[in-house]
Specification:
Two copies of one chain form a homodimer. Chain A is α+β, with helices and mostly antiparallel strands and about 210 residues long. Chain A has two domains: about 90 residues, Glutaredoxin (3-Layer(aba) Sandwich); about 100 residues, Up-down Bundle (Glutathione S-transferase Yfyf (Class Pi), Chain A, domain 2). Chain A contains nine helices and four strands, in the order βαβαββααααααα. Chain A is globular. Chains A and B meet through strand 4, helix 3, helix 4, helix 5 and helix 6 of A and strand 4, helix 3, helix 4, helix 5 and helix 6 of B.
Chain lengths: ~210, ~210
């Protein structure tokens, strides 16, 4: 049995969706963000020293980091359906987009979040860097999803689960308006049955709404 | 033949070191940071739309993101020596540390870099968050490398190549003083022949020094 330590409004959404798609038995342990600070609660620190979510328990081991969990669950339960063959050219692209979602694209999104929270969102250097970086990254992604339902090989893969959380953050900020292909891609992901079940589960486990 | 688009003082150090360890034939294409802004030069944008480094060319394909490149090169050239078996418990830990290096640990380091560059490094909220987050992450890493030469299974793996760049950033800021096990681990990595060859190559390709 897999146990998912799930935090509302977090990267754990990626893992929740992946688990819904995999159809393996799993259990959700629900954690709630602090209503005032929006930070993760201490209950997560009791699970794993990083105090973050997602964390999964599987075969007596604990694993953190959503990118690692995505790759690991797919390796274990869906290597033939949710990732390209290891010896294909697409395998490298699969890894690239998994990392793009949490490294390249997440950086300006988190810089924006933290500088706004700190009240320094009007700093010229930061504002300029964030805007320029976001535009570069979103233009690239927009080109790559033109006419496609999925980012790698036009087939659902771990890379789509990873990108989905970025797209939700971006959509909340109204930041997808200029990127029609990304909007189309996000809508296509959101139309999948497993995605819709996931959003209902997330809502059920989010006490802030 | 593998071609590495290498930028001085960047995550490309991870890939350079991995290529030195793999012993596969490869070529370095050298790019230089802007002397004033320290940003990546336009020459990288001509290589890949993300305009970053590392980027590798292999079998007619381009791949970005240092985490993806690390996993891909190891899958292709050293699956039996530089990563745990896919069906072992350590495989999940291997993936976790690869992602930890570029996701969890990189976030406070980059927040610190960018807020200092923007002149808002004395903001109370940011200063507090960065210090707390760094301490949590480094304490965790410090515990995990106690008495070990390598982070996963006490055997050199892709996770060490990924962490090495974080350790270099941290050491430059004098941020490892309170973490004796991490210092010991960093020194052990730095003592490897392939690491030392890499640092000489980096120096030869860095026109700023």
């Amino acid at each position: 049995m897999i146990r998912l330590h799930h935090l509302n409004q977090s990267r754990s959404l990626r893992t929740l969706w992946l688990l819904e798609e995999l159809g393996q038995p799993y259990e959700i342990i629900s954690h709630q963000r602090d209503a005032k600070t929006h930070l993760a609660p201490d209950s997560l620190k009791a699970v794993h020293p990083l105090g973050k979510s997602p964390v999964i328990e599987m075969d007596g081991e604990l694993y953190a980091e959503s990118g690692a969990i995505t790759e690991l669950l797919i390796e274990r339960f869906a290597p033939d359906s949710l990732r390209p063959a290891v010896d294909s050219a697409d395998y490298g692209h699969y890894l690239q987009w998994i990392n793009f979602a949490e490294s390249s694209l997440m950086l300006p999104l988190l810089l924006e979040l933290f500088t706004n929270k700190a009240g320094v969102g009007d700093n010229d250097f930061l504002k300029g860097y964030i805007a320029q970086e976001k535009h570069k990254l979103l233009s690239y992604l927009n080109d790559k999803v033109a006419g496609k339902s999925f980012i790698v090989g036009n087939k659902l893969s771990g890379a789509d689960f990873m990108l989905s959380f970025d797209l939700i953050m971006l959509a909340k900020r109204g930041a997808l308006e200029d990127y029609a292909n990304i909007k189309q891609y996000a809508l296509q992901l959101a139309s999948l049955d497993s995605y819709q079940r996931t959003m209902r589960l997330e809502a059920n486990h989010d006490k802030s709404i």
